[in-house]
Design goal:
It is a single chain. The protein is α+β, with helices and mostly antiparallel strands. 26% of the residues lie in helices and 28% in strands. It has helices spanning 189-193, 200-204, 215-224, 242-250, 253-258, 260-265, 273-276, 286-301, 314-331, 338-351, 395-410, 484-499, 502-506; strands spanning 2-6, 16-22, 29-30, 35-40, 45-49, 54-59, 66-68, 72-78, 108-113, 123-129, 136-137, 142-147, 152-156, 161-166, 173-175, 179-185, 304-312, 358-360, 363-365, 372-374, 376-378, 381-383, 386-387, 424-428, 447-451, 455-461, 464-478. Strands 17, 20, 23, 24, 25, 26 and 27 form a 7-stranded mixed β-sheet that branches. A 4-stranded antiparallel β-sheet has the order 1-8-6-3, with no helix packed on it. Strands 5-4-2-7 form a 4-stranded antiparallel β-sheet, with no helix packed on it. A hairpin with a 2-residue loop joins strand 26 and strand 27 (464-478). Helix 3 (215-224) packs parallel to helix 4 (242-250). It is elongated.
């Protein structure tokens, strides 16, 4: 029987797409969920998987054609029809040379795909391959490591066998669900391992001269006046995709092409030879590059303003000292300061909801819940795990979750879902000794509270000078949505709740 391959749902506002690349040709054998072709819309690139196993029959929509939603792309012959396909010229040769066919020896090819990266993450960089072509691999053995803008992701082997081909080399950028490598599994694995390095040669021969670029990429290059030679293609066989042109435009490829001289003048000031010999140049990790870009974007896109106050920590420290042993005995976790600050912020956010809101175009989106981001420093960089629905959690639940996510952040084991959806953030620079700072917003959030070092200072209380443990607080906020009055009110409410924790119980 024959199965139709149709254009999948592209999104509620997308009605058509362009066929960018066919990965298979008529007569090729295909497995279930194996990628057949790639479609380009004006927003995203969509890969079309095979709905069944069989043989690709007819390609109805050729590369470069524009197709609508649910349009017919191709047909697949299932079951016995696959072996009967006249296009498979290798079939008769199987009886003569069984050693060259993994299928004839009981083996098969297994694709290694990019795992799920998270709903807001569309690409990753291949940082390290732990195996080489021809190496034997066991199921679930780590093959490579990917870096996204938030976390590092290890890719395990989906099956045992021999690593036959690496499609994405170290340093290359891959999209979600892209193919990374091919594993020859089963009895045919050993036969394939000797010749596995041969197919790898074409992957390094990426000149791009004989490869047709994506139609949308050609159109965009023509509109922007960019020469194809100035764009690095990341598609199949070096094919230039729409995203490649957009990246080239963003990096100033147009200006570099028109006036190459300024590009040479861009490097830093000359360094004396004796100093240069003592320098060390290390490429920024993808995580660090993304942190830098997001922080700068936050400054460029939001009207960030910071307001300060100070809080007397006497009552919180006394309460913690009085109950910390009983608290740890009952709940199995230490009572720290973060749960007090989290509760105080939740209390203040209820009164000043715009600090817990975000801007979406010309709308303000108010959140009737609090997902608290808690910034944590790691050897790889700053990450912000999110404690969801913190407004409904107890002190013990908050302390347990903060402790657990902090440990996993330092070990690089946080998942993407655990760092998404925050509505407000707390950053504790005091653990490093910071006395005062102005934290930068974590977009699209509109507020972030900076905690600092607790330091004894002389304070005037009831007309007398006394020594009190004081902490400076800093609230950075987006002035587009939060007015000065709201920001100051929020910080005062946090201060009042910490200086008299009983207000939290009384909801005052």
């Amino acid at each position: 029987m024959s199965t139709e391959v149709r254009v999948p749902t592209l999104g509620e506002s997308v009605t058509e797409a362009t066929v960018a690349t066919w990965f298979k040709q008529p007569g090729d054998a295909v497995a279930v969920d194996e990628m057949l072709c790639e479609l380009e819309t004006d927003k995203v690139t969509v890969e079309v998987p095979s709905p069944v196993a069989g043989t690709l029959g007819e390609i109805v929509a050729a590369e470069g054609e524009t197709v609508g939603v649910d349009a017919l792309l191709a047909t697949i012959s299932e079951g016995g029809e696959a072996s009967a396909s006249p296009a498979k010229k290798e079939a008769p040769a199987k009886a003569e040379a069984p050693a060259e066919s993994g299928a004839a020896s009981g083996g098969e090819s297994v694709d290694v795909m990019v795992p799920t990266l998270g709903e807001s993450v569309t690409e990753a960089t291949v940082s390290t391959w732990f195996k080489k072509v021809g190496d034997a691999v066991a199921q679930d053995e780590m093959l490579c490591e990917l870096e996204t803008d938030k976390v590092s992701v290890e890719v395990p082997a989906p099956a045992s066998g021999v690593l036959a081909e690496i499609l994405a080399e170290e340093g290359s950028t891959v999209e979600a669900s892209a193919k990374l490598a091919v594993i020859s599994s089963g009895e045919g694995a050993a036969a394939k391992s000797g010749a596995s390095e041969a197919p790898a040669a074409p992957s390094t021969k990426v000149g791009g001269k004989d490869v047709e670029n994506a139609p949308s990429a050609n159109k965009l290059m023509a509109e922007a006046g960019i020469d194809a030679a100035a764009v690095t293609g990341t598609g199949r066989d070096g094919r230039i995709m729409k995203e490649d042109v957009q990246k080239a435009i963003a990096s100033g490829a147009t200006a570099a092409k028109a006036t190459p001289a300024p590009a040479a003048a861009a490097p830093r000031a000359p360094v004396p030879a004796d100093d240069a010999a003592r320098e060390e140049r290390v490429k920024m990790t993808r995580l660090r590059q993304t942190i830098a870009r997001r922080l700068k974007d936050a400054q460029n896109n939001a009207a960030i303003l910071t307001t300060y106050n100070e809080v007397d920590m006497t009552e919180v420290m006394a309460l913690r000292s009085q109950y910390k042993d009983e608290f740890e005995k009952k709940h199995g976790v230490r009572l720290g300061f973060m749960s007090f600050f989290t509760k105080a912020c939740v209390h203040a956010l209820r009164e000043v909801p715009e600090v817990n809101a975000e801007i979406d175009g010309t709308d303000i989106v108010y959140k009737n819940f609090v997902h608290m981001g808690v910034a944590a420093g790691t050897p790889q960089g700053l990450v912000v795990p999110v404690i969801r629905d913190v407004d409904q959690k107890s002190f013990a639940e908050i302390e347990k979750e903060i402790g657990e996510k902090g440990r996993r952040a330092r070990d690089g084991k946080l998942s993407m879902a655990e760092m998404q959806g925050g509505t407000f953030t707390i950053s504790n620079g005091g653990v490093y000794g910071s006395l005062m700072s102005s934290p930068i917003l974590n977009p699209p959030q509109s507020g972030i509270l900076g905690m600092h070092k607790i330091q004894d200072r002389p304070m005037v209380v009831n007309g007398e000078i006394v020594i009190r443990p004081m902490m400076y607080l800093a609230l950075s906020y987006d002035h587009r949505i939060v007015d000065g009055k709201g920001a100051v009110t929020f910080l005062v409410r946090v201060k009042e709740a910490l200086e008299d924790p009983r207000r939290l119980l009384m909801d005052l």
